[in-house]
Design goal:
The structure is a single chain. The chain has 589 residues and is α/β, with parallel strands linked by helices. Strands 3-2-1-4-5 form a five-stranded parallel beta sheet, sandwiched between helices. The chain has a two-stranded antiparallel ribbon with strand order 6-7. Helix 1 links the parallel strand 1 and strand 2. Helix 17 packs antiparallel against helix 18. It is globular, with a radius of gyration of 25 Å. It starts with 5 loop residues before the first strand and ends in a 7-residue tail after the last helix. The structure holds flavin-adenine dinucleotide. The site of flavin-adenine dinucleotide has 29 residues, from helix 11, helix 13, helix 16 and helix 18.
Length: 589
């Protein structure tokens, strides 16, 4: 039976209808009207250098969600609105007579800050907020409380805590029906008429004049990048033409002023694709039952990945992590040999790592993303190349004498280091927005403690720009792990730039694909073309130093030097929140 509730359901980290405990909570209110809203949050474009591939995946996922809503309720769709949520949502709930705002909890530091402002505004308008956890296996807030406010710095710590909480909740079905997004007093039940009424109700708001407009829109995309090169001042032109359907429709890359022709859409967005992929993975009971992360190969690309490649779908919530957990459990039962692997190596174990980083970030807050002020991050005297703001002004100039690391960082980002394994991985990242976990190990160790001795913060920024699956907890968390700044301390364990990939693929398929200039080298030299005799280089049609760069550093020399440095840093025993670090007086080693 319908009640009096009028619900604004705000989609953020949950672009799906299946197993959405927050959406279920909205439906449990038996609302008279339900407004499914996506609100462009300027954080997507201002605070992060979101690359085109992540935008593409997001827009595809929004479009699929909108279609799914329409499939469930023919006269509804995702209502895409444009504007700063803390300003726009209060207007919406006033104009649409909203009684409840329902959201999936976003436990990241930024999400919590934004939602605290929203809560304040809601309290003033007497709008009730219902926030439900669904983005992780367990609620990070609950886990951190049980850990007495401390971050979970080891998987065993998390495992112990969640053993007390109990099983991961079982997934819920997608709703069979959704209430209409109907303005109060409206008599119409047809989508075009509803959209017109909604459009009318927004008249007078910036971007919703109803007359259409020209010129730069609210979303300034000057940070969007194409193929690794900053594309100048890409300004977003709002193509809203004033008609009601375009006012609320999902934008396209073109309508946002982005040219996607240079990125590969290897990984398609959306809930439908996510469920199809999950179904195929779990059909192969042996794959799931024998999944052991260290044995998966980083040499296989996204068209035939050795891991699930579900991370982009989990990031945007196109796939419920709880459904992945339980479907994997069911698949393992079907394997006649029984489950062969256990956490943390197996598939479910990977999901626990995701929760571990979310809970660690929840306890530390904003400082988790940097060294300074971060109580769990060891201080190392990394090179810290210049940080530029969006106008090209240096925010934090580099220390004197650090030109070399500046040049190394940019060669690294562009996949021009002269080490084919690193270059192939970085080009794959820029082009397709994804990289296998052990590939991420290789490039992260190389940039930091392995060879370049550049701060993990700069590497994490590059990942933030290009990864589709970029996550505010898993990204800094894993960078700290790989640089031995936190979570992991075995700094003597490194990845050979030729020996490590050769363990998985002696033929260098990944290099041949992403560094086509090297594709004709014989297997023997594919990871070390600089060691090939000139005759071999000529025959391969690629002269090192002319057609492909010389290695930008000496692998062995840097390895030995950095091993000494990291040892000394460990002895120094400073952390990001040490007085010396906060006062900028930490000793160089
Ligand atoms: P699978 O092996 O199939 O694992 C299934 C799921 O488990 C993944 O989709 C992911 O959600 C989770 N998972 C697996 N490994 C990890 C891990 N080590 N940490 C956290 N979650 C994990 N993952 C992100 O989702 N976002 C990031 O921004 C991110 N940045 C990383 C940065 C570095 C330097 C490194 C080394 C790893 C990073 N990872 C990140 C973790 C991991 O590499 C990816 O989650 C994984 O490669 C995604 O591919 P998959 O879906 O095939 O993984």
């Amino acid at each position: 039976k319908q009640g009096a509730a009028r619900v604004l359901y705000w989609f953020r980290t949950d672009l799906r209808l299946h197993d959405s405990p927050a959406l279920q909570a909205a439906l449990d209110l038996k609302p008279a009207a339900l407004f499914p809203v996506w609100c462009w949050d300027p954080n997507y474009v201002y605070k992060h250098r979101v690359g085109i591939n992540r935008f593409r995946f997001l827009l595809e996922s929004m479009q699929v969600l909108s279609d799914q809503i329409t499939n469930t309720q023919a006269n509804s769709q995702l209502l895409v609105v444009r504007g700063e949520p803390t300003e726009l949502l209060p207007e919406l709930w006033k104009r649409w007579k909203i009684t409840h705002l329902v959201i999936e909890k976003d436990p990241s530091a930024y999400g919590r800050r934004r939602d605290a402002l929203i809560k304040e505004a809601a309290a003033k308008s007497k709008v009730e907020i219902v926030a439900v956890q669904g983005h992780h296996l367990y609620d990070p807030e609950d886990v951190v409380k049980r850990n007495k406010g401390k971050p979970t710095m080891a998987i065993s710590t998390l495992q112990k805590i969640v053993a007390d909480i109990g099983d991961v909740p079982k997934p819920l079905d997608a709703p069979k029906d959704l209430p209409l997004p109907q303005p109060e007093g409206s008599k119409t039940a047809k989508l075009p008429d509803l959209l017109s009424e909604l459009a009318k109700s927004l008249e007078g708001l910036p971007h919703y004049t109803g007359k259409g407009r020209e010129g730069p829109a609210d979303v300034d995309l000057n940070s969007a990048t194409l193929g690794g090169q900053r594309d100048g001042e890409l300004t977003c032109y709002d193509t809203l033409n004033g008609d009601a359907s375009s006012l609320f429709s999902v934008p396209t890359l073109a309508s946002l002023g982005m040219d996607a022709s240079k990125v590969r859409d290897t990984i398609k967005g959306g809930e439908v694709e996510a469920l199809k992929k999950l179904g195929n993975i779990c059909k192969d009971a042996e794959y799931v039952a024998t999944f052991a992360k260290p044995k998966t190969s980083p040499g296989q690309d996204a068209s035939d990945p050795s891991t699930t490649l579900l991370s982009p779908y989990l990031k945007f919530g196109c796939l419920s992590v709880r459904k992945l957990w339980w479907d994997a459990e069911e698949a393992k039962k079907k394997y006649k040999g029984g489950s062969k692997t256990a956490p943390p190596e197996n598939l479910n174990g990977q999901l626990l790592f995701r929760d571990m980083y979310a809970c660690a970030e929840h306890a530390i807050g904003d400082a988790f993303n940097q060294v300074r002020g971060n109580s769990v991050c060891r201080y190392m005297d990394w090179y810290l190349p210049t940080v530029y703001d969006k106008d090209g002004q240096a925010i934090m100039p580099r220390p004197p004498g650090d030109e070399v690391s500046e040049a190394r960082l940019s060669a690294y980002k562009m996949g021009q280091t002269g080490f084919p394994w690193i270059d192939a991985l970085m080009r794959q990242l820029r082009l397709e927005g994804w990289m296998h976990h052990l590939g991420r190990h290789s490039v992260a160790a190389f940039l930091t403690r392995g060879q370049c001795w550049i701060s993990w913060e700069r590497g994490a920024e590059i990942f933030d720009e290009y990864l589709i699956d970029w996550d505010p907890c898993s990204n800094p968390g894993n960078w700290m792990w790989l640089s031995c700044s936190a979570f992991f301390t075995q700094y003597f364990r490194l990845y050979g730039l030729a020996t490590f990939p050769a363990k998985y693929d002696k033929t260098g398929a990944l290099v041949r694909k992403y560094c086509p200039e090297l594709s004709k080298f014989p297997d023997k030299y594919i990871y070390e073309p600089f060691n090939a005799p000139i005759e071999v280089q000529k025959k391969a049609g690629c002269i090192v130093g002319r057609d492909y760069p010389f290695p930008m550093l000496d692998e062995k020399e840097t390895k030995t030097e950095n091993m000494q440095r990291i040892k000394a840093c460990y002895q120094l025993g400073l952390f990001g929140d040490s007085k010396e670090v906060l006062e900028g007086k930490a000793e160089a080693v």
